Amino acid sequence: MELQLFIGKQDCSVDEKRRFSLPPKYRPLFGSQAIPTGYTHYVALIPWYGGALGALPMSRWEEIQARLARLEYTTPDFLEAKRVCLPRMELVHTDPEGRLMLTPEQLTWLRLQPKQKERVMLVGMGQHLEIWNAAEWAEVESSGRNPATRPAADLEYDRQLELLMRAALELEKALPSPGGGEASPDEA
């Protein structure tokens, strides 16, 4: 199967009910499931680095989840990171019109106002999408960093998420490859 990546960007409106349409160009990368009223697409929404949301296809989320499961009870740092990060992650699906609904917590993470029309920028990042507050995107795109002032708790979350993701990646590199031997540099 040919690897397809999330690329490009798309400006989207968020309605008063906290919904935005997942652009048709990205939907096939999330996979689909037939339902009586059409199709739905499953997405893992994760508060992401720098104040964005990460939108991961279920296949990618399942890979990350398998890595995280191997970190069970390894150290107090990992347990703390899991306590901080995992409860904020949501597994969601689109409605038959292809819309995703953001939770109030996700609106707050993106610095969007509830019950108002807002805009988000969906940005292809290879294996996932990042969802940004559209008002902040121009600065993020030019500098690589979010200029928005974020609470200390959000910055601590970023640190914990980085710890968790790095640990899962390092553990995966240290494990033998599925063929039984050590992982080759190309596989790591």
Notes on the protein architecture:
This protein is 35% helix and 24% strand. By secondary structure, it is α+β, with helices and mostly antiparallel strands. The strands form 3 sheets. It has a 6-stranded antiparallel beta sheet with strand order 1-9-10-6-5-7. A hairpin with a 4-residue loop joins strand 9 (118-124) and strand 10. Helix 3 crosses helix 6. The longest helix is centred in the C-terminal third of the chain and has 23 residues, at 152-174.
Query: Helices and strands, in N-to-C order?
Result: EEHEEEEHHEEHEEHH
Strand % is 15-25%
CATH domain class? Alpha Beta
Per DSSP, the total helix count is 6
Please provide the count of β strands: 10
List the strand order in the largest sheet.
1-9-10-6-5-7
The computed structural class is alpha+beta
Proportion of residues in helical segments:
25-40%
Fourth-tier CATH superfamily name = Transcriptional regulator MraZ domain
Largest sheet: 6 strands, antiparallel
Rg to the nearest angstrom?
A: 17 Å
Shape verdict: globular
Q: Uncertain runs with pLDDT below 50, 5 residues or more?
A: 180-188
For the record, the CATH architecture stands as 3-Layer(aba) Sandwich
CATH topology: Chemotaxis protein chec
- Domain count: the total is 1
The separation of the N and C termini measures: 21 Å
What is the overall pLDDT average?
A: 86
